[in-house]
Amino acid sequence: MKLTSRIRWLLASPLLLLLLAVLGYVAAGPFLAIHSIRDLVARGQTQELWRFVDFDSLRESVRPQLQQKIAQSILARTGNTQSARNVGEVTVMLAKPAIDAMTSPQGFAVLLQGSSLARSTPISTSGKAPPNDPLKTAVTHFESTSLLTATVQNAEGQPVIFEFHRHGLAWKLDGLRLPL
Predict the structure, then answer these.
(1) Domain ranges for the chain
(2) What count of other Cβ atoms lies within 10 Å of the Cβ of residue 49?
(3) pLDDT, mean over the chain
(4) Residue 36 pLDDT > 80, yes or no?
(5) Average pLDDT estimate for 158-175
(6) CA dihedral of residues 77, 80, 85, 89 (deg, nearest 10)
(7) Residues 109/43, Cβ–Cβ less than 8 Å
(8) Three-state DSSP class for 125?
(9) Residue 75: Cβ within 10 Å count
(10) CA nearest to 35, candidates 147, 143, 152, 171
(11) Residue 144: CB atoms within 10 Å
């Protein structure tokens, strides 16, 4: 039996639609993750953030940045007379609790709701400041097919970059670039 072009088109159409739907979902994935993170933080459901945030990868992303910042601060105050080993040990000791607190679901929610990522928090007509939501105005950019960055400004106007990576069809926040 010979297939006519019309029959071939009718057979291929559902496959093409399915392919377009999957591609659309993958492209929209990081934006859905950003929206879900914002929604969970606003509702105080930090225990559900694990669905959109890989806290272990986030911790590994933040650890060297924070340790470097602490080491630079120590060396700036004490001079270069301290051995690198001593500074490294002190840095690890000081940074570990801060990193663990910052990269926990509750700490991450506090980071997003706090004023460190807000340039100014306007007062509403009710006299109450609305909750901070820095990801709402984040500037997003696909750096590759599996990496989207969302950039927000901290209180000093420096960029804080949230990295969303694709894992299969799902997207998760698993990196953070801090201004140093």
Answers:
(1) 8-177
(2) 20
(3) 84
(4) yes
(5) 93
(6) 0
(7) no
(8) coil
(9) 15
(10) 171
(11) 8
Give the Cα separation of 38 and 48 in Å (integer): 12
Task: For the beta carbon of residue 59, count every other beta carbon within 10 angstroms.
Answer: 17
CA angle 117, 96, 94 (to 5 degrees): 90
Of the candidates 35, 33, 31, 92, which has an alpha carbon nearest to the alpha carbon of residue 66? 92
Residues 6+ apart with CB under 8 A from 17: none
9-36 as b/e, with b when 16 or more CB fall inside 10 Å?
Answer: eeeeeeeeeeeeeeeeebeebbeebbeb
Between CA 168 and CA 171 the distance in angstroms is: 8
Q: List pLDDT tens digits, range 55-67.
A: 999 999 999 998 8
Using CA atoms, how far apart are residues 142 and 159, in angstroms rounded to an integer?
16
Residues 6+ apart with CB under 8 A from 10: none
15/71 Cα distance (integer angstroms): 56
Q: Is 115 helix (H, G, I), strand (E, B) or coil?
A: helix
Residue 167: which of 21, 18, 19, 53 has the closest Cα?
53
Smallest CA-to-CA distance from 105 within 47, 63, 161 is with 47
- Phi, psi torsion values for 169, nearest 5 degrees: -95, -10
Structure token digits, residue 137:
């105005």
Q: Which amino acid is at 103?
A: T
